[in-house]
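User: These chains co-purify. Model them together.
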Amino acid sequence: MMLRTLLLAALMAGTISGILLTAIQQLQVTPLIVEAETYEPGAGHAQTHDHATSAAETSGNDENDQRLLLSLLSNVFAGIGFSLLVASAITLSNQKGWRKGLLWGGAGFIVFFAAPALGLPPKLPGTTGASLLDQQLWWISTAAASAVGIALLVFSRPRLLKGIGVLILLIPHIAGAPQPEQVYSLAPEFLAQQFVIASAISNATFWLLLGLMIGHFLRNLDDSPLT
Amino acid sequence: MNISTTPALKAGNATSRLTASLTALTLGLIILFAVGFVQGANDVIHDAAHDTRHTLVFPCH
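Assistant: Joint model of the two components:
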Protein backbone atom coordinates (compact mmCIF):
# COMPACT_ATOMS: atom_id res chain seq x y z
CA MET A 1 0.00 0.00 0.00
CA MET A 2 2.67 2.41 1.04
CA LEU A 3 4.75 1.66 -2.04
CA ARG A 4 1.75 2.36 -4.25
CA THR A 5 1.30 5.77 -2.61
CA LEU A 6 4.96 6.55 -3.15
CA LEU A 7 4.96 5.51 -6.78
CA LEU A 8 1.74 7.35 -7.54
CA ALA A 9 2.96 10.56 -5.89
CA ALA A 10 6.28 10.37 -7.74
CA LEU A 11 4.58 9.63 -11.05
CA MET A 12 2.25 12.61 -10.75
CA ALA A 13 4.80 15.10 -9.40
CA GLY A 14 7.46 13.90 -11.85
CA THR A 15 5.20 14.16 -14.87
CA ILE A 16 3.93 17.63 -14.00
CA SER A 17 7.36 19.01 -13.13
CA GLY A 18 8.85 17.39 -16.26
CA ILE A 19 6.23 19.11 -18.43
CA LEU A 20 6.83 22.41 -16.66
CA LEU A 21 10.59 22.03 -17.09
CA THR A 22 10.05 21.46 -20.81
CA ALA A 23 8.09 24.72 -21.06
CA ILE A 24 10.78 26.74 -19.25
CA GLN A 25 13.47 24.94 -21.25
CA GLN A 26 11.84 25.83 -24.56
CA LEU A 27 11.57 29.47 -23.57
CA GLN A 28 14.91 29.98 -21.87
CA VAL A 29 17.39 27.18 -22.38
CA THR A 30 16.97 25.45 -25.74
CA PRO A 31 17.34 28.67 -27.78
CA LEU A 32 20.77 29.14 -26.18
CA ILE A 33 21.78 25.51 -26.84
CA VAL A 34 20.65 25.80 -30.47
CA GLU A 35 22.54 29.07 -30.87
CA ALA A 36 25.67 27.55 -29.33
CA GLU A 37 25.45 24.65 -31.76
CA THR A 38 25.65 27.09 -34.68
CA TYR A 39 29.21 27.83 -33.55
CA GLU A 40 30.14 24.17 -33.80
CA PRO A 41 31.92 23.29 -37.05
CA GLY A 42 29.33 21.55 -39.23
CA ALA A 43 28.51 17.99 -38.31
CA GLY A 44 32.08 17.47 -37.08
CA HIS A 45 31.87 18.20 -33.41
CA ALA A 46 34.53 19.65 -31.14
CA GLN A 47 33.99 16.61 -28.97
CA THR A 48 33.57 12.99 -29.84
CA HIS A 49 29.96 12.73 -30.87
CA ASP A 50 27.80 14.26 -33.54
CA HIS A 51 24.46 15.85 -33.12
CA ALA A 52 22.80 14.30 -36.13
CA THR A 53 19.74 13.18 -34.22
CA SER A 54 19.68 16.02 -31.75
CA ALA A 55 19.21 18.37 -34.67
CA ALA A 56 22.22 20.60 -34.84
CA GLU A 57 20.82 21.52 -38.19
CA THR A 58 17.80 23.34 -36.96
CA SER A 59 16.23 23.63 -40.37
CA GLY A 60 13.08 21.64 -40.77
CA ASN A 61 10.15 21.59 -38.39
CA ASP A 62 10.22 17.81 -38.13
CA GLU A 63 13.62 17.87 -36.49
CA ASN A 64 12.51 20.57 -34.08
CA ASP A 65 9.38 18.63 -33.23
CA GLN A 66 11.39 15.48 -32.66
CA ARG A 67 13.84 17.34 -30.48
CA LEU A 68 10.99 18.82 -28.42
CA LEU A 69 9.30 15.46 -28.03
CA LEU A 70 12.49 13.69 -26.95
CA SER A 71 13.29 16.48 -24.50
CA LEU A 72 9.77 16.29 -23.06
CA LEU A 73 10.12 12.55 -22.66
CA SER A 74 13.52 12.70 -20.97
CA ASN A 75 12.46 15.64 -18.79
CA VAL A 76 9.45 13.66 -17.55
CA PHE A 77 11.67 10.64 -16.86
CA ALA A 78 14.16 12.85 -15.00
CA GLY A 79 11.24 14.37 -13.07
CA ILE A 80 9.94 10.94 -12.08
CA GLY A 81 13.44 9.75 -11.14
CA PHE A 82 14.12 12.76 -8.89
CA SER A 83 10.57 12.55 -7.49
CA LEU A 84 11.16 8.95 -6.46
CA LEU A 85 14.28 9.98 -4.52
CA VAL A 86 12.48 12.86 -2.80
CA ALA A 87 9.41 10.73 -2.07
CA SER A 88 11.70 8.10 -0.57
CA ALA A 89 13.45 10.66 1.66
CA ILE A 90 10.16 12.27 2.76
CA THR A 91 8.67 8.88 3.62
CA LEU A 92 11.75 7.78 5.56
CA SER A 93 11.84 10.99 7.57
CA ASN A 94 8.04 11.12 7.81
CA GLN A 95 7.80 14.81 6.88
CA LYS A 96 4.86 15.22 4.59
CA GLY A 97 2.95 18.29 3.50
CA TRP A 98 3.77 20.95 0.92
CA ARG A 99 5.77 23.19 3.28
CA LYS A 100 8.18 20.43 4.22
CA GLY A 101 8.13 19.36 0.58
CA LEU A 102 9.33 22.79 -0.45
CA LEU A 103 12.33 22.39 1.87
CA TRP A 104 13.05 18.97 0.41
CA GLY A 105 12.89 20.52 -3.06
CA GLY A 106 15.42 23.13 -1.94
CA ALA A 107 17.69 20.35 -0.68
CA GLY A 108 17.33 18.58 -4.04
CA PHE A 109 18.31 21.80 -5.83
CA ILE A 110 21.48 22.05 -3.72
CA VAL A 111 22.38 18.35 -3.98
CA PHE A 112 21.70 17.80 -7.68
CA PHE A 113 22.21 21.24 -9.19
CA ALA A 114 24.08 23.81 -7.09
CA ALA A 115 26.78 21.54 -5.62
CA PRO A 116 27.73 19.78 -8.89
CA ALA A 117 27.44 23.09 -10.80
CA LEU A 118 30.00 24.72 -8.47
CA GLY A 119 32.67 22.43 -9.95
CA LEU A 120 31.16 21.65 -13.33
CA PRO A 121 29.17 24.76 -14.32
CA PRO A 122 26.27 24.45 -16.77
CA LYS A 123 27.97 24.08 -20.13
CA LEU A 124 26.83 24.87 -23.64
CA PRO A 125 27.59 22.43 -26.45
CA GLY A 126 31.05 23.14 -27.85
CA THR A 127 32.68 23.78 -24.48
CA THR A 128 35.71 21.70 -23.52
CA GLY A 129 35.59 19.43 -20.51
CA ALA A 130 37.70 16.73 -18.90
CA SER A 131 36.96 13.14 -19.92
CA LEU A 132 33.25 12.43 -19.71
CA LEU A 133 33.73 9.50 -17.31
CA ASP A 134 35.80 11.62 -14.89
CA GLN A 135 33.14 14.31 -14.93
CA GLN A 136 30.37 11.80 -14.37
CA LEU A 137 32.21 10.19 -11.45
CA TRP A 138 32.83 13.58 -9.85
CA TRP A 139 29.20 14.56 -10.40
CA ILE A 140 27.88 11.40 -8.75
CA SER A 141 30.36 11.64 -5.84
CA THR A 142 29.48 15.29 -5.28
CA ALA A 143 25.73 14.68 -5.31
CA ALA A 144 26.12 11.72 -2.92
CA ALA A 145 28.47 13.65 -0.58
CA SER A 146 26.14 16.66 -0.59
CA ALA A 147 23.13 14.49 0.27
CA VAL A 148 24.96 12.81 3.17
CA GLY A 149 26.46 16.12 4.32
CA ILE A 150 23.14 17.97 4.37
CA ALA A 151 21.40 15.05 6.09
CA LEU A 152 24.03 15.02 8.87
CA LEU A 153 23.90 18.80 9.19
CA VAL A 154 20.12 18.96 9.44
CA PHE A 155 19.15 15.76 11.24
CA SER A 156 22.00 14.92 13.61
CA ARG A 157 22.05 16.38 17.11
CA PRO A 158 25.70 16.23 18.25
CA ARG A 159 27.87 19.14 17.12
CA LEU A 160 30.59 16.74 16.05
CA LEU A 161 28.29 14.99 13.56
CA LYS A 162 27.11 18.35 12.20
CA GLY A 163 30.75 19.30 11.73
CA ILE A 164 31.44 16.06 9.91
CA GLY A 165 28.43 16.86 7.71
CA VAL A 166 29.94 20.20 6.70
CA LEU A 167 33.26 18.50 6.01
CA ILE A 168 31.60 15.91 3.77
CA LEU A 169 29.80 18.73 1.93
CA LEU A 170 33.13 20.44 1.25
CA ILE A 171 35.32 17.44 0.34
CA PRO A 172 34.37 17.23 -3.38
CA HIS A 173 35.11 20.94 -3.82
CA ILE A 174 38.40 20.72 -1.96
CA ALA A 175 39.36 17.74 -4.13
CA GLY A 176 38.20 19.78 -7.15
CA ALA A 177 36.26 18.89 -10.25
CA PRO A 178 38.13 17.31 -13.17
CA GLN A 179 39.22 20.07 -15.53
CA PRO A 180 40.21 19.88 -19.20
CA GLU A 181 43.82 20.51 -20.18
CA GLN A 182 42.75 23.41 -22.31
CA VAL A 183 39.69 25.48 -21.55
CA TYR A 184 37.93 26.97 -24.51
CA SER A 185 34.41 27.50 -25.68
CA LEU A 186 33.20 27.82 -29.24
CA ALA A 187 30.20 29.87 -28.16
CA PRO A 188 30.83 33.45 -27.02
CA GLU A 189 31.14 34.28 -23.33
CA PHE A 190 27.86 36.22 -23.02
CA LEU A 191 25.97 33.19 -24.32
CA ALA A 192 27.63 30.96 -21.73
CA GLN A 193 26.71 33.40 -18.94
CA GLN A 194 23.11 33.58 -20.12
CA PHE A 195 23.04 29.80 -20.11
CA VAL A 196 24.22 29.56 -16.50
CA ILE A 197 21.47 31.97 -15.40
CA ALA A 198 18.77 30.27 -17.48
CA SER A 199 19.83 26.88 -16.18
CA ALA A 200 19.79 28.03 -12.54
CA ILE A 201 16.30 29.54 -12.90
CA SER A 202 14.94 26.42 -14.63
CA ASN A 203 16.40 24.11 -12.00
CA ALA A 204 15.20 26.18 -9.05
CA THR A 205 11.65 26.28 -10.42
CA PHE A 206 11.74 22.59 -11.27
CA TRP A 207 13.01 21.53 -7.84
CA LEU A 208 10.81 23.73 -5.67
CA LEU A 209 7.69 22.70 -7.55
CA LEU A 210 8.70 19.05 -7.50
CA GLY A 211 9.29 19.07 -3.73
CA LEU A 212 6.09 20.96 -3.03
CA MET A 213 4.02 18.51 -5.07
CA ILE A 214 5.63 15.39 -3.59
CA GLY A 215 5.02 16.64 -0.04
CA HIS A 216 1.44 17.50 -0.88
CA PHE A 217 0.65 14.31 -2.78
CA LEU A 218 2.21 12.04 -0.15
CA ARG A 219 0.07 13.58 2.59
CA ASN A 220 -3.16 13.64 0.59
CA LEU A 221 -2.80 10.20 -0.95
CA ASP A 222 -2.04 8.82 2.48
CA ASP A 223 -5.23 10.30 3.90
CA SER A 224 -7.35 9.15 1.02
CA PRO A 225 -9.36 5.97 1.56
CA LEU A 226 -8.36 4.73 -1.91
CA THR A 227 -4.83 3.85 -0.87
CA MET B 1 -7.47 -3.32 24.06
CA ASN B 2 -5.09 -1.99 21.51
CA ILE B 3 -2.08 -1.97 23.76
CA SER B 4 -0.85 -5.38 22.70
CA THR B 5 -1.44 -4.87 18.97
CA THR B 6 -0.08 -1.38 18.59
CA PRO B 7 3.66 -2.15 18.83
CA ALA B 8 3.33 -4.94 16.32
CA LEU B 9 1.37 -2.68 14.00
CA LYS B 10 3.96 0.05 14.38
CA ALA B 11 6.77 -2.36 13.63
CA GLY B 12 4.88 -3.54 10.56
CA ASN B 13 4.40 0.05 9.44
CA ALA B 14 8.04 0.87 9.93
CA THR B 15 9.11 -2.16 7.91
CA SER B 16 6.73 -1.42 5.07
CA ARG B 17 7.80 2.22 5.12
CA LEU B 18 11.44 1.22 4.89
CA THR B 19 10.78 -1.32 2.12
CA ALA B 20 8.71 1.16 0.12
CA SER B 21 11.30 3.92 0.53
CA LEU B 22 14.20 1.73 -0.52
CA THR B 23 12.27 0.39 -3.53
CA ALA B 24 11.43 3.94 -4.65
CA LEU B 25 15.02 5.02 -4.09
CA THR B 26 16.42 2.17 -6.19
CA LEU B 27 13.90 2.73 -8.98
CA GLY B 28 14.64 6.47 -8.98
CA LEU B 29 18.39 5.91 -9.19
CA ILE B 30 18.00 3.49 -12.12
CA ILE B 31 15.81 5.96 -14.04
CA LEU B 32 18.18 8.86 -13.35
CA PHE B 33 21.19 6.81 -14.39
CA ALA B 34 19.50 6.10 -17.73
CA VAL B 35 18.45 9.71 -18.31
CA GLY B 36 21.64 11.32 -17.09
CA PHE B 37 24.56 8.99 -17.73
CA VAL B 38 24.01 6.19 -20.23
CA GLN B 39 25.26 6.93 -23.77
CA GLY B 40 23.57 3.98 -25.48
CA ALA B 41 24.48 2.30 -28.75
CA ASN B 42 25.41 5.00 -31.30
CA ASP B 43 24.85 7.58 -28.53
CA VAL B 44 21.11 7.14 -29.03
CA ILE B 45 20.20 7.78 -25.38
CA HIS B 46 22.68 10.66 -25.15
CA ASP B 47 21.14 12.32 -28.19
CA ALA B 48 17.57 11.85 -26.99
CA ALA B 49 18.31 13.22 -23.53
CA HIS B 50 20.78 15.84 -24.81
CA ASP B 51 18.93 19.04 -23.91
CA THR B 52 17.74 17.58 -20.60
CA ARG B 53 21.32 16.77 -19.64
CA HIS B 54 22.52 20.28 -20.49
CA THR B 55 19.64 21.86 -18.59
CA LEU B 56 19.96 19.72 -15.46
CA VAL B 57 23.81 19.96 -15.49
CA PHE B 58 24.46 16.27 -15.99
CA PRO B 59 27.91 16.03 -17.61
CA CYS B 60 27.12 15.64 -21.31
CA HIS B 61 30.35 15.95 -23.29
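Chain B has a mean pLDDT of 85.
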